[in-house]
Design brief:
The chain is mainly β and about 100 residues long. Strands 1, 3, 4, 6, 7 and 8 form a 6-stranded mixed sheet that branches. It has a two-stranded antiparallel sheet with strand order 2-5. The chain is globular and about 40 Å long. It starts with a strand and ends with a strand.
Length: about 100
């Protein structure tokens, strides 16, 4: 589970691997990180799109969560990663979610 304090900026470094444990080659993929309150929401709380990756062949990338993204009510949210290539092929990676912690 990714954790961030409300209204904070934070970089999360990520590594993607295949089911067999080998690095997922991110070359040519855009990464979408989406958070929402429940599965039936028509609109996400926020979506972060990352098109450049740190070491794509090794599966290394990152996302930057901004103040605007994290300015949500504290609590636990559903979240997932989607990798989409230029042809529209999608690979979805479920996560343990996103926790937004109270900031005072």
């Amino acid at each position: 589970m990714l954790e961030i304090y409300r209204r904070d900026n934070k970089r999360f470094d990520l590594t993607f691997v295949t089911d067999s444990g080998t690095p997922f080659n991110l070359s040519g993929y855009s990464l979408y990180y989406t958070a929402q309150q429940n599965y039936t929401d028509a609109v996400a709380l926020f979506t972060i799109i990352q098109t450049g990756h740190d070491l794509p062949v090794s599966g290394f990338t990152h996302i930057d969560v901004s103040t605007g993204d994290s300015n949500q009510c504290p609590g636990d949210y559903l979240a997932l990663f989607r990798l989409i290539d230029a042809s529209g092929k999608r690979s979805t990676f479920e996560t343990e979610g996103l926790k937004i912690l109270p900031s005072f």
